Amino acid sequence: MLKELRISNFALIKELRFSPSEALTIITGETGAGKSIMLGAVGLLLGERADTKTLYDAGDKCYVEGDFNISEYDLAGFFKDYDLDYDKICIIRREISPSGKSRAFINDTPVTLDILKELGNNLMDIHSQHDTLLLRSSDFQLEVLDSYAGTSEILANFKSAFAKYRHSEKNLKQLREEHSRLSAEFDYINFQKEELDKTNLVEDEQENLEEQVQVLENSEEIKSNLNLILNSMQDSEISVLNQVKESLRLLKHLTKFSSRYELFSSRLENLSFELEELIRDLATEEENVETDPARAEELKSRLSLIYGLQQKHKVSTIKELVEILEVLEQKVNTASGMESSIKEAEAKVRKFWDEIEKYGRLLSEKRRKVVPELQKELTGYLKDLGMPDAAIVIEITDVEAGNQGMDKVSYLFSANKGIKPKELRQVASGGEFSRLMFCLKFILAQKTRLPTIVFDEIDNGISGETALKLGNMMKAMARGHQVITISHLPQIAARGSNHFFVYKENLDGKAVSKIRELSEEERVAEIAKMIAGDNPTQNAFKSAKELIANKLTGRETGS
Fold it and tell me: Residue 167 half-sphere exposure, CB side, CA atoms within 13 Å?
């Protein structure tokens, strides 16, 4: 509930503080004194857009700040979701700079207007005589019925099943589309996969094949050069090997003269061994080199196959071809296993649809069960509020499953006897809408915890006994909820737990709106003026006191 409202530099308000009671707070004042301005400021706290034209002093910052006790609203999850500090006293603040920049804060943390609006919807419900669009909404009509029927748990189960159904249905659709696409391409994909698969690709194969082909195609030159090398190394009289051996013999002879020659001798001996081993390896290589045109053609054919696959798949290595093969194998396996996946997905869709039907039936049964009772209550309260011939019919029709269930709810209304009830938008006037909305909120106040309710001159067009009954209903509603009412009727004003008066003063040649809480004596005087005008009689004062004591009827006030 609202603990305190603070407004600075807004429209006709220079500075204002307002602390309503926890029950029924009455606000009265002359037309144009600033009552609606206060509601405009409250609207800023609830996320409405700001305008620099609303600044009292165009050179100063405007702020609106409200302290709300949220301990009974179960909003800890909201604060956690948006990473906001939670406290049972929540402070909301809006600032508007002269440049037009607007900022919003929840417990000193900057937030967007969307977040502020989401929180505001849980804190205050402002209803004016022109607020008819909401009641015309089928969703709102359904929400009212659900609140009255107490369907929150069943509805939560339905919404959960519906969300899972939509998700599984989307997944099934995607699987079917993928299956259809893969099926159309399957033969070609499988052909490509088998083509690569039967090639038995090996990652380093290409380089080895290219080298073997080079050797085979140049075998005669290679063999000839190897023979020349071998001849120079061992076969001729002046071969390298013979010269190394002769040099080794001479070095060994020198070792008897100095030990220093032993190291040279040892090194040359090692070179001799290495040279002999090299000659043996070259001889083996020369023997292995063969001229084999058939083998060369065979290897070139294999290379040609590899080059063709690389060109076809627009790659340049066998490694890339192997990767493509893996992707193709995955697609083939996916396509092969797709039917099984589709069957599993279809089973999930059926399962969640069964849950939807189950909870949908329970929802519909619970809603339909309370319709006669709600119709009766609404009709009774409308009669109390001066509409003796009013009739309400709540129709529930089956519709395709949606997030709110499988029902469409329509409130049909008739204000006159003998007139068949029709949809609200076709028959209800502004005053009738206001009274119907009030009756709905009055009924819901007995069923659930509502946010702070603000009524802005909802009593227009009402007087006498009807006004008394409306005031008593507001008083009853305020026993469990905070209600703030802007009114021009003494019967309503007399029901308040406290009473605030809005008025204008001239400050430095400029009109300014102010508000003050009336004492008991001032309250009697204000209600007397509402009864008899600016110069109330003693009878008016007496009537005001008796109204406050709840002893007068509407007729005795002259309303």
Answer: 7
User: Measuring CA to CA, how many Å separate 467 from each of 5, 26, 464?
Assistant: 28, 14, 5
Domain final residue, candidates 336, 357, 386: 336
What is the per-residue pLDDT across 536-552, written as a single tens digit (0 to 9) for each? 889 988 988 888 887 44
**Beta-carbon-side half-sphere exposure of residue 451 (alpha carbons within 13 Å):** 18
Closest CA to 193 of 302, 304, 327: 327
For residue 72, give the 3-state DSSP assignment. coil
Q: Into how many domains does the chain fold?
A: 2
Max avg pLDDT among 321-330, 502-511, 531-540, 546-555? 531-540
Q: Are residues 186 and 292 in the same domain?
A: yes
Residue 123 sits in the same domain as residue 226: no
145 assigned to some structural domain: no
Proportion of the chain in helix, strand, coil states, percent, rounded to 5? 60, 20, 25
Residue 323's domain comprises 178-336
DSSP 206-236: HHHHHHHHHHHHTHHHHHHHHHHHHIIIIIS
- Check: pTM over 0.85? Answer yes or no: no
Q: How far is CA 198 from the centre of its chain?
A: 51
Locate 29 and state its tokens. 């004042």
Closest CA to 27 of 493, 533, 364, 553: 493
Q: What is the CATH number of the domain that holds 93?
A: 3.40.50.300
Rounded distance between C-alpha atoms, residue 48 and residue 124, angstroms: 13
Whether 298 maps to a domain, the answer reads: yes
Q: What CA–CA distance (Å, rounded) separates 107 from 68?
A: 11
CB burial string 480-504: b at 16+ within 10 A, e below: ebbbbbbbebbbbbbbbebbbbbee
Within-domain flag for 261: yes
Phi, psi of 386 (to 5 degrees): 85, 20
Beta strands (DSSP E) in 58-115 are 62-69, 89-96, 102-106, 109-111
